[in-house]
Design goal:
118 residues, 4 helices, 53% helix
């Protein structure tokens, strides 16, 4: 039996509280996602559909998320610079590419491709 029904049978009153509707899940994986959400919060506050205090809190949280995304991006770029062999794609001698496209043999063994210092 629900709390409201029990209260009604007991002769006491209860205040029913309407729970907020579930919010849609907003992707916040990129700075562009965060920018879109910040713009949405701004428009909602500007139109009076969102309290200014709530918009301010949400904007502050979005700024924090944006900073974390920026820091993660910088961290990944530094990691790539410090460890170039991890993600390094070997360079290709264009003469070899042209020869292979023409059905000919490459001028150097594959293991040596990208090691030329011309």
């Amino acid at each position: 039996m629900s709390r409201a029904k029990r209260a009604a049978e007991a002769g006491t009153s209860t205040t029913l509280v309407q729970l907020p509707t579930p919010l849609r899940k907003v992707p916040l994986q990129s700075l562009e996602d965060v920018r879109r959400e910040a713009a949405r919060v701004y428009r909602e506050a500007r139109a009076g559909r969102l309290e200014t205090a709530d918009a301010s809190r949400l904007s502050f949280m979005l700024q924090g998320i944006a900073k974390m995304i920026e820091a993660t991006t910088i961290e990944r770029r530094i990691e790539a610079l410090e460890n170039p062999t991890k993600q390094r794609v070997p360079s290709v001698d264009f003469e070899d590419v042209e020869a292979i496209e023409n059905g000919e043999e490459a001028t150097r063994p594959v293991a040596q491709v990208g090691t030329s210092h011309r």
